[in-house]
Structures are given as structure tokens and as C-alpha cells.
Amino acid sequence: MPALRIAAVAAHFGRDVQRAVAKVEGIIGDARAAGAGLLVLPDATLGGYLSDLRHPDPATLPPALAEDSWEVQRIVALAREMVVCFGYAEEVVVDRPGDPAGPELRLYNTALAVTGDGVLGRHRKVHQPAGESLVYAAGTAFEAFDTPVGRLGMLIDYDKTFPEAARTLALDGARLLACLSAWPASVTDRASRLPQDRQSRLFDLYDAARAAENQVVWVSSNQTGVMGGLRFLGQAKVVGPGGDVLARTSSKGGLALAEVDVDVEVARARRLLHHLAERSPAAYGTLGA
After folding, report:
1. Nearest-CA neighbor of 234 among 206, 205, 195?
2. Which of 58, 3, 47, 56 lies closest to 24, judged by CA?
3. Residue 288: pLDDT band with limits 50, 70, 90
4. Global pTM?
5. What are the tens digits of pLDDT across the range 241-285?
6. Gap between the Cα atoms of 182 and 246, Å rounded
7. Euclidean distance between CA atoms 210 and 202, whole angstroms
8. Is pLDDT at 289 greater than 60 in this prediction?
9. Using CA of residue 88, residue 89, residue 95, residue 96, what is the dihedral sign?
């Protein structure tokens, strides 16, 4: 497979879904003009993220969309030959046979990977910070899937805090990991400048660590701007399998573009020290408990 041009997005997406679709159309056009084969948009691309992590207001939640909604299918059509990852609040109807209350509606914080041919893979956020569990049901698995640009795995922001999440995807054969975020600055210890914020440092640290420990290419997108009481960090980036940042944005909107021969770079990183092959699971005790 030839070298892949990867685009990671830092951008602001709010509650107006129609405006978000129009914005995505422009970003896809820019990425296509730049030759990107993989485009990773932020978490909550369609409808924005929560406006309060501690006490989410039910009256101001992101709009719930089904996978077959016009908005989702419009992005599928726009993607054409490109692999596009994006996030949205997914509404799922769960049948409950025999329950007098009838079917249950669940809302998930979901990422989709699509081309013009349809949905390639999906991920429902597993790890939930603070009040997010009051709004969203939690996903239950991390699974890689095949795409035209190689085997891919996805995570959603807080998932990357947990090494087991990215490791599971790498062990499932993913050499490209896309982490879609709506990652804000600290809500308890605000810094006057975003680069000095504790969450800003952690965001960058996790990106580099997850790439290096799994020896994969890591693509990190993020929201920018403000939603309610949350100020998002931006800092989208592409990270090589040695933990080196190949391209990044600032706290403002933009595309981080990098050209990577994924198979060559991953093979080079694993030539002498192959972290996945050299694990010692028997020594890890209760890690999976």
C-alpha cells in the first residue's frame, strides 16, 4: 500500500446539525484537495458535545440521530473514496421482549468510519467521565475493522486515558488508531493560557504514549472553542509509531496533515523491539479483572 496522507481535524461544532453538515462538507473538500485518504473529525461532529460535564441539562443535550438519518448518510455520500471518521449522539432502539414498558431508547456517544460505500466500522464510547453517564449509555467493546487505508481502530476521548483500550485495538491488528475527542481544558483548575492547562498536557501525553507503547500510527482530533462551561483544547495531531508528532494544530481550528507509509513505519518501529509480541501476560496478574 502506498504512503497515506492523513488529516486530523481541530474544529468547533455546535448544536446546529445542518450547519455542522455544511462545515463537514467544506472540511472534506479541503482534505480531498490536500490528497488525504483518511480524515478524522472530532467527537460530537454532528450536534456538539455536552455543555456541562458535572450536571448536564436535559434541555440542552446534543440532538439524537439514528445511523440511517439524513445527516449521517450525507457524510457517507460526501466521503466518496476517502475514509472519514466522525462522532455524533446515536439514538438506538433496544427491543425488550416481554417487558410491558416496551422498547428502550438509548443514547450513545458514537464514532463512525465511513466511505461512500457505507459504514465501515463504529465505536461506542466505553469510558465515561463525570456526568456523561447521566446522558449516554456506555459501549462495551473495542474492535478493529478493515478499511481501504488499512486496519483501523477508534476510540473516543476519555477512552485514550486507559492503556488497555488502545492495546486491545492494536492486538486486534489495527495499525492506525483514530481517537476522536471533545476534550476540554480543566474545569477545576483553569489556567490563563491553554498550553499551560493540566488537561492540555495530558491530552498530548496520552497521544504520544498510546502511539509509542503500541507502535502504531495515532490520529487525534478534537473540538475547539466553547460549549457552555467547557473550553475545548484543539491540538489535533498525527503521531508516528515512535511517539513522534508528525503534524499538529494549535488550540485554533485547522487540519494536521501528515504523509505516512503506515506499514513501513510500523514495521520499522517493531523491527528490534516488538512490544505486542514481547508482552508477558502471565506476569500481569489481575489486569483484566
Report:
1. 195
2. 47
3. low
4. 0.95
5. 999 999 999 999 999 999 999 999 999 999 999 999 999 999 998
6. 21
7. 12
8. no
9. positive
